[in-house]
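_Per-residue structure_
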Amino acid sequence: MRDLQATTLEELAELAASFAAQRGGLLPLLHAVQARIGHVPDEAVPIIAHAHNLSRAEVHGVLTFYHDFARKPKGQHVVKLCRAEACQARGSAAVEAALVRSLGIAMGETRGDGAVTLEPVYCLGLCAIGPAALIDGEPVAALDRENAAQIAAELLQ
């Protein structure tokens, strides 16, 4: 992943143009931008819109509809905690409280040092063994206060 300064606006324009002829190329382009710099910055929206002959509102609509597109940089580690009903019934509120306390951030935030982002997700399909989370894309289940606090400590090392 590179930051926006390392990826120039000209490079973003070239990337956008490379997907412009592809039918339905907007989603693959947004994924490519996010893979390259870790998020889809606001500065990229007009470039993408122009390359695909779309309005900025249309690009913005796609970015905000799909929850996995980040509009600002995420942390080095990303914890996605399930908030679906089954995980709630199995104690995800206590797990969330432990993570919030241990990481020092609220749900939906990234630590100031960029170490960790804590995000809600609604069902990981691990209902029978919840509460569950994705930690850097890896599923973790049967969470409780203690192992959640331990995971947070490991992520902060």
Q: What stands out?
A: Residues 77-155 form a domain with the Glutaredoxin fold (CATH 3.40.30.10). Residues 41 and 122 are 25 Å apart (CA to CA). The beta strands are 77-82, 116-121, 133-135, 138-140.
